[in-house]
Amino acid sequence: MDLLLQALPSAAMTEEAVRRTVLTKLVGAADAAGDLVLAARCLGALQALRQPGRPGSPAQDCDVDQALARRLTHGAYATYFGEGLAGGTALLTTLYPR
To answer: Which of these, 26, 34, 33, lies nearest to 95 by C-alpha position?
Structure first.
């Protein structure tokens, strides 16, 4: 997970596909490490990459498990998902500097 967080600032300055890949991997790594706050923020940042007004679930365009996406976007983790949605990769690189 630390290597992915280290890659995030560089990925933030590249094309969308690279950002999407790093964020998708971070969601899975954070979930596996039990850091659901980070996973929710990363999923929110992934959702922020979608085209404005485009319908669909946050996990629809990536390889994030749908059940995990539902858990991270509702209930206790919804606020963190919203933070990631509003702040995107800029928030993540600020909160998790490496």
So the answer is: 26
Contacts for 68 with CB less than 8 Å, ≥ 6 apart = 27, 31, 39, 59
Of the ranges 5-9, 19-23, 75-79, which is most confident?
Answer: 75-79
> What distance lies between CA 80 and its chain's CA centroid?
10
Which two structure tokens, joined as six digits, stand for 56?
């669909």
The residue range of the domain holding 62 is 2-95
The count of other CB atoms within 10 Å of the CB of residue 10 is 12
Q: How confident is the model at residue 71 (pLDDT cuts 50, 70, 90)?
A: very high
Cα 25 → chain centroid = 9
Count of the separate structural domains present in the chain: 1
Residue matched to tokens 């971070």:
26
Selection from 34, 61, 33, 50 nearest residue 84 by Cα = 50
**For residues 1 and 33, is the Cβ–Cβ distance under 8 A?**
yes
pTM: predicted TM-score of the whole model, two decimal places: 0.83
